[in-house]
Amino acid sequence: MSSTRFGLAGATLALLLTAVAGCSAGEGVEVDGADGGAAGGVLNAAIGGEPDQLDPHKTSAYYSFQVLENVFDTLVEPDANLEMKPSLATDWTTSDDQLTWTFTLREGVKFADGSPLTAEDVVYSYQRIIDEQLNTAYKFGTVESITAPEPTTVVVKLSAPTPNLLANLGGFKGVAIVQKANVESGEITTRPVGSGPFAVAGYTSGDNIQLVRNDNYWGEKPKLDGVRFTFVSDPTVALQNLRGGEVQWTDNLPPQQVPALRDADDPTVQSVPSTDYWYLALNQARKPYDDVNVRRAIAFALDREAITRAAKFGLATVNQAAIPQNSAFYYEYAPYSHDPNQARQLLDRAGVGDLTMDLMVTSEYPETVTAAQVIAAQLEGIGVTVRIRTLDFAQWLDEQGNGNFDSFMLGWLGNIDPDEFYYAQHHSGGTFNFHKYRNPAVDQLLDRARTETDQAARKQQYEQVAKQIVDDASYIYLYNPDVAQGWSTKVSGYEVRTDRAIRFRDVSLAR
């Protein structure tokens, strides 16, 4: 998922304490246990920003998926080792030619409103993504048809073998199974109806989203009565609220404090390497960034170690390619040393001097703001003046989608299969190829690799992809961050995941 793609700045502590205290007066939503009544209680979780919307097929914001992970289901889902396991589908079979996949659904699954979830809902959800060319349509590139011959049977027919089909159908909630009536009413953007362990009970824009336990959930019922997601943009405030007991969980921790927090007992803080990557992208639809020499000049001018130290305080690993070291598809390739002289020579070769570059970042990902300041200082040394433009995330997404930028910094979060690291971003027809990269050789490799069934050959193809993308400076990769999260000692049953999925279905909260 993108972050990528995945507006609150400068909120005061007083406002935030009000936010976590409860609903607005006019909201009219009661959450069992919020006042210490029913067993289980409500977990208050502080996240770094507000979702742009709650339609899983249309959002690309990580803040949305933090909530939606607890509301929706997919056919299959990744376990802690990122291996795909049953969810709505209990099992599946593949034809000998690997072109027909047959999924068997659980009996008796219901949406949170009590209506049945059947194979027709799966067909509707996938066809909606395909027909409307929504964010994850690229995951269905080899799908020829999706049918529901029986209420508990889904048949997916493919045009070519697709080794990552399970990851495509279950890697994250952007391919969730939605309810047609909820979509057609338009309520899915703020009051989505899923089949997951929790249901949305209230949404106060600029404040919080309330979930309650879904008593129609097909799995083991959550122990919590509910979860309240509060939007806290300032990591220092989020940590203060965690220490003070106003919230019991957050992933918005000041990175410079994480090492010391991990060594302490209260609150509990853990970090693990992630499957994420952060990068700088240059708009190749604008001159002079259409010239590979200019892009490579900027890549040579950057000191990634310094950028990573400033942005992440050691909670990241520098990487000049996308896929992190903990993946079987990791490819060690680092052609750009920090070399301002080489950078200036490349700019001279391109005939570029006294360049002013717009760099778009977002206040809801503070590391982009910090990194941008370091990047600006480094590029000044090669005669490039950087004008940092800091937007709230909704504005940032609009500007990105409209191509109104010279450059931007952001990250892609929660990737599993190598196709997710590259296809949507770098294929000439890719959904998220906002920087307008075009290389027919890369297109061909990406098309071939996503249908390659020999794993060794597939790895080799993605290594070729990675090398060409880095050489072309399609993205200028910076680092792979760690996932760092903290929670109260009253919380048990929570697990930090490398894919950054936030699951509260197994969590208990001591009263």
From TrEMBL:
Transmembrane segments: none annotated. PROSITE patterns: PROKAR_LIPOPROTEIN (PS51257), SBP_BACTERIAL_5 (PS01040). The keyword Signal applies. Keywords: Signal, Transport. GO terms for molecular function: peptide transmembrane transporter activity. It is a lipid-anchor. InterPro entries: Peptide/Ni-bd (IPR030678), SBP_5 (IPR039424), SBP_5_CS (IPR023765), SBP_5_dom (IPR000914). Its main location: membrane. CDD domains: PBP2_NikA_DppA_OppA_like_11 (cd08516). Coiled coil: none annotated. Residues 1-25 form the signal peptide. One of its GO terms (biological process) is peptide transport. Residues 83-431 form the Solute-binding protein family domain. It holds the Pfam family SBP_bac_5. GO terms for cellular component: ATP-binding cassette (ABC) transporter complex; periplasmic space. The keyword DNA-binding does not apply. Belongs to the bacterial solute-binding protein 5 family. This is ABC transporter substrate-binding protein. It comes from Micromonospora radicis. The lineage of its organism: Bacteria, Bacillati, Actinomycetota, Actinomycetes, Micromonosporales.
